[in-house]
Amino acid sequence: MAVQQPRYSKEEFAQRGDDIYQNQVFPLVDAANHGKIVAIDIETKDFEIDASEIAACTRLEARHPDAQIWIVRIGSRHVRRFGGRTKKSV
Questions:
Q1: Is residue 88 part of a domain?
Q2: What's the pTM?
Q3: Contact, 46 vs 64, CB < 8 A?
Q4: Nearest by Cα to 8 from 55, 68, 65
Q5: Residue 80, domain member (yes or no)
Q6: Region for residue 58 given its phi and psi (left: phi exceeds 0; alpha: psi -120 to 50; beta: otherwise)
Q7: Tens digit of pLDDT for each residue in 1-20?
Q8: Number of structural domains, the chain?
Q9: Domain that holds residue 58
Q10: Which residues face 69 on adjacent strands?
Q11: Nearest in space to 70 (alpha carbons), one of 30, 13, 10
Q12: CA 76 vs CA 36, 37, 56, 73: distances in Å
């Protein structure tokens, strides 16, 4: 299995992914998908939605083996959170 190489700079990759999500994917998702993962092929603009990153990416790669995948969590600026969280007192 050949290792896939990125075809875009990090900045262009992120810009393309965010643009596709905001302009083409986000208007199509509903509240029931809040918190799920969107895997977007930034070249074909095809996407998959699933609760699991791996499942969404696997289905997308089955259709587009050379996909350049950008991942977004619906309703969040972050796909994952690292470290602890402190609770705010009211």
A1: no
A2: 0.80
A3: yes
A4: 68
A5: no
A6: alpha
A7: 456 667 889 999 999 999 99
A8: 1
A9: 10-28+35-73
A10: 41
A11: 13
A12: 10, 10, 17, 6
Angstrom CA distances, 23 to 29, 41, 50, 67, 81, stand at 12, 14, 19, 19, 25
- Token couple for 42: 């930034």
> Residue 81 falls within a domain, yes or no?
no
DSSP class of 51: S
Residue 83 zone, left/alpha/beta (φ > 0; ψ -120 to 50; rest): left
Give pLDDT tens digits for 35-79: 999 999 999 999 999 999 999 999 999 999 999 999 999 988 778
Residue 82 lies in a domain: no
CA–CA separation, 62 vs 80, rounded Å?
24
**Which tokens sit at 35?**
């918190």
Hey, what are 78's tokens? 């972050």
Candidates 43, 38, 55, 59; CA nearest to 6 is 43
